Amino acid sequence: MTFTLTPTYDDNPRLQDLVGRLREFLDGELADYETGLGLAPESGCTRAQLEPVWRRSRELGFYGIHLPKEHGGQDLTYTELAALKEEVGASGRILQHSVLGDMGGPLRAGPILQYATDHQIETYLKPVIRGERACCFSLTETEAGSDVRAMSTLATPEGDGWRITGHKVFSSAGPFADFSVLIARMAPEPDAPEDAKPVFSAFLVDLDSPGCTVLPGETPMSGEHIESDIVLDNCRVEAGQLLGKVGDGLRIGLGRVTTNRLLHCPTVLGQARRALALTVDFARTRQVFGAPLGALQSIQHKLADMATSYYAARSMTYDALADLDEGREPRTEAFMCKLFVAENAFRIADEAVQIHGKAGLVRGAEVESIFRKLRMFRVLTGSSEIQKNGIARQLLMPG
């Protein structure tokens, strides 16, 4: 893998064409759309503003492109999908999360196709793939983050369905979603022993159901208004809304962990690449004492370290993705990639702010916005400490 801030993918004509068309859309039509709306990085987006992006991305073949052909996708390899996710991350677009369907779209709903019934696919998932509906994922609770088994949201049997009561937090895409893939703990059977292990199931919960309330969630340090709390008070779900079987909840909620962990990395690599590109441009054009800032050796060394970190993080990520494409499960490598990408992407962003000086400290400056997003990735989808635990566990107890 060669180092470049604008990968060409000469060895993969299909990917080369897709990347070229994706860049054209991101830098042209989507950029113009955002400008017309007057969007800023911390703008709250409405459903009416997002739907045109979903539909247009679908028309261009990007929305759900990773899916099998029978669901309107192009059967992308993991490596090809990662390359597109990196381009989206590197674009600097505010609505980048709506192009491939990361936020409430096919990238969120796709993994559950294998568990869904024909009715659920037709009613819930195909409309998401077509950009007509949106979904969110509700697993986390205030007292159940990394320890998801501590969740208290309870599903109690009633007739051929259930009543669910609980409070979910950090449901990304909740503000504009139609339904949630919600994980709940099943009420124990009356004759179950006190020390019986809890059982968890997944449900497709319509967010306009009686007893279901969508509240504004906490605003993360990125400033994006994309989170919701999902509050359920005796909310009825029917038998046909059970996703998979009773007891499949954690398999669905935490399934494909290795794949998902790896596929978060390319977006972050793209954002780090964007920070590096912006900083290189700033160093070339910023004049200090009659010469470009980049003429200073101290700045050159910082840029060299940033580029080297990006290259190393990208190389190990795509190496692990190649293993996935070969049918292997790079479990240890996925922990390593998440750890290394998160820590080094943040260092790149930190140096970008440092080199920009006061211009990088201004709220709303692009490198400042990227800095806050990349700081979050050291915690989201498993903190760096969790990744280290996983690496050590694989070393000490392999198999």
From TrEMBL:
Native organism taxonomy: Bacteria, Bacillati, Actinomycetota, Actinomycetes, Kitasatosporales
Q: Name one Pfam family in it.
A: Acyl-CoA_dh_M
Q: What's the family?
A: Belongs to the acyl-CoA dehydrogenase family.
Q: Which organism is it from?
A: Streptomyces endophyticus
Which InterPro entries does the record match to this protein? Acyl-CoA_Oxase/DH_mid-dom (IPR006091), Acyl-CoA_Oxase/DH_mid-dom_sf (IPR046373), AcylCo_DH-like_C (IPR036250), AcylCo_DH/oxidase_C (IPR009075), AcylCoA_DH/ox_N (IPR013786), AcylCoA_DH/ox_N_sf (IPR037069), AcylCoA_DH/oxidase_NM_dom_sf (IPR009100)
Positions of the Acyl-CoA oxidase/dehydrogenase middle domain: 136-235
What domain of life does the native source organism fall in? Bacteria
Q: Where is the Acyl-CoA dehydrogenase/oxidase N-terminal domain?
A: 17-132
Q: Which residues form the Acyl-CoA dehydrogenase/oxidase C-terminal domain?
A: 247-396
For this UniProt record, the keywords arranged alphabetically read as follows: FAD, Flavoprotein, Oxidoreductase
> What is the name listed in the Swiss-Prot or TrEMBL entry for this protein?
Acyl-CoA dehydrogenase family protein
Names of the cofactor(s): FAD
